[in-house]
Amino acid sequence: MIDIHTHLIPNVDDGADSIKETLRLARAAVEEGITHTVLTPHHNRYWVTNEKDKVLKLTKEVEQAIQEENIPLTVSPSQEIRMNEEFSEELFAGNYLPLDENGQYYLVEFSWSDFPSFARTYLQEMLDAGITPVIAHPERQRPFLDNPDLLKGLIEMGCISQVTASSIVGDYTEEIRQASHYMMEENLIHVIASDAHNTYERPFNMVEALKILDKVYGTTYKEYLVDNAEKIFMGQKVKPFKN
Ligand SMILES: [Fe+2]
Asked: What spacing in Å lies between the alpha carbon of 136 and ligand 1's midpoint?
């Protein structure tokens, strides 16, 4: 299983706060059946930036530390990129790290509170260039909670979206748990990821979330959300879910 959204790199955002915690997270990932984690530190948030070169360098360090401990987990560099006014310019200048090697997918995060006026244009520019934006955890963003049609419009444009395992489990609020289910029922979700930050408050929760998906929606849908993580990582096309 591949996890396309994690905060394992130590001391760069609100994720792992030491290399020891990185290693604890790596072991926890393996226990959950994860074989590869894409490292997606926050970028473009007002309180934190993690530039491409820094992430590339730190990913190598994390990789080495994991190998030294003989933990059977591979990692690759990417970013969780906050949508801001410079987003499009920076993206097309090659300053962002995609989720896959070929640059087909980028993990795009919106602020908790608003959906900026320029966002739709920027997303369309990506789609026109053959790039698919992966919207990070829409079930945890106020604009999508208040207006699911906003998300629906973006999916109809060609964007895809990632639900967080802990939202399904109910580790955030009941509103977020319900929103995650509503969005899945409406076919507005394409992939599941952990967004794991640490082992104590924001863990992987993948096994538990997958159990719920299996029970509520069945194995085919659960596998659809899991398999798309691999498709994204391999730069392959993600299709809408069909019963
Ligand atoms: Fe994240």
From this structure: 7
